[in-house]
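stuck on this chain:
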Amino acid sequence: MKELLTISQLQISLQEGPRQRDLLQDIHVDIGQEETVALVGGSGGGKTSLGLAILRLLPSAMKVTKGEILFLGQDLLTLDRAQMQNIRGKEISMIFQEPLSAFNPVFRIGDQIAEVLEAHTDGPRSKTQDKMCALLDMVEIPEPRRIAGSYPHQLSAGLRQRAMIAQALAASPKLIIADEPIASLDVSIQAQILNLFEELKEKFNLTYLFISHDLRVIEYISDRVIVMYLGKIMEIAQSRDLYKHPIHPYTEALLSAIPVICTQTKKKRIILKGEIPGLTKLPSGCVFNTRCIYARQKCIDEVPGLTKRDGRSFACHYPL
């Protein structure tokens, strides 16, 4: 499988006055063409920051202080503003968690999609409206011309999310970063949007970086899973392998929290001790050692590197 995106030794830091804190450390990620890679972990783990870093959309107080982000062999961190602007939307698109915040509230939905088409695609402007309506129809929005004339606040959450997917697809990107794209939706709508993601992937040979905290969603949609905790990668594995046998204790704890519908099925439930450390008070050694039920002295003394074994990677001195 040809690599589409390769992230190596990435470090993202937050500047707070004279102090600098590392939010993400030593991140290594490979995404192959037409692959769906899921990024999962608790809140504050750095998942969204990684997605924003790829598009160089980090807030001004945050910056990449080390590493490289290669997209088809080209380091995105070395591009000037105009070059990066040409990649956003055209080569890489992002779908945000809450479209009501992502869409401009004073412009109609159709105008915002048309803006992407005009910026990144060729052809006469007279055809833009037809293309825009075709995109809305493709994501199964009823009455696309009427919806195109609506403002974001006039649409339901499900329709707004479909419209954002249409906008992300407008310039036929190679990679779509989906940041918690169904978290704010009703469960029944979530299933429809997930099915839409799968259909569009097959139809357009798309590649996804899918960010979520919901392991049930990840299991359904992902080929590979990257588990993060406090800005560090804990484990990387094929989805089927990860759910069958997690290697890292943090992954095991996350999977144990998934509700089981069948009451006759007995499942080991792991309750993590303590509280999540603040980024200003990260523990020495493994960042998970203060909550890990298997932690030993070595976990406190030494930072575990990312070890590769049998097609998967893990950062643990005592893998399961």
